[in-house]
């Protein structure tokens, strides 16, 4: 049976189950996982345990490694960029008179992609 943990991701509606292989983790550890969106930081919610019958890790989420001090420093840098990007996001929404209220900008861990969210169901106008 695989060893799994529940991980919370910043903009996920619920926890995801991740197979951690033989890695040593504890509740509250910060980890890097690969998701369909790219590499993301997550927080371990519970101690590792053996998967129960019929239980398996979420597809599309793969454990990479426990966050290092350098990873946490990188995350802090990205958080600073997010604050700057939020100002630009709000300015563009106002300039184009869009009916939305920007609520968040999240840079994925590679720093190459920013994901935005807003208050309304139609945030992503094509």
- Which regions have little confidence, pLDDT < 50, spanning 5+ residues? none
Q: Would you list the SSEs in sequence order as H and E?
A: EEEEEEHEE
> Any idea what the radius of gyration is?
17 Å
Q: What does the largest sheet look like?
A: 6 strands, antiparallel
Average pLDDT figure: 88
Chain oligomer state: single chain
How many DSSP H or I helices? 1
Tell me what portion of residues adopts beta-strand conformation.
25-35%
| N- to C-terminal distance | 44 Å
Globally, the shape reads elongated
Q: Percent of residues in helical segments?
A: 10-25%
**Could you say which structural class the secondary elements and strand pairing correspond to?**
alpha+beta
β-strand number: 8
How would you describe the overall organization of this protein?
There is one protein chain. The mean pLDDT is 88. The protein is built from one helix and eight strands. The longest helix has 27 residues, at 69-95. By secondary structure, it is α+β, with helices and mostly antiparallel strands. It starts with a strand and ends in a 7-residue tail after the last strand. The strands form two sheets. Strands 1, 2, 3, 4, 5 and 6 form a six-stranded antiparallel beta sheet that branches. Strands 7-8 form a two-stranded antiparallel ribbon. The protein is elongated, with a radius of gyration of 17 Å. 21% of the residues lie in helices and 35% in strands.
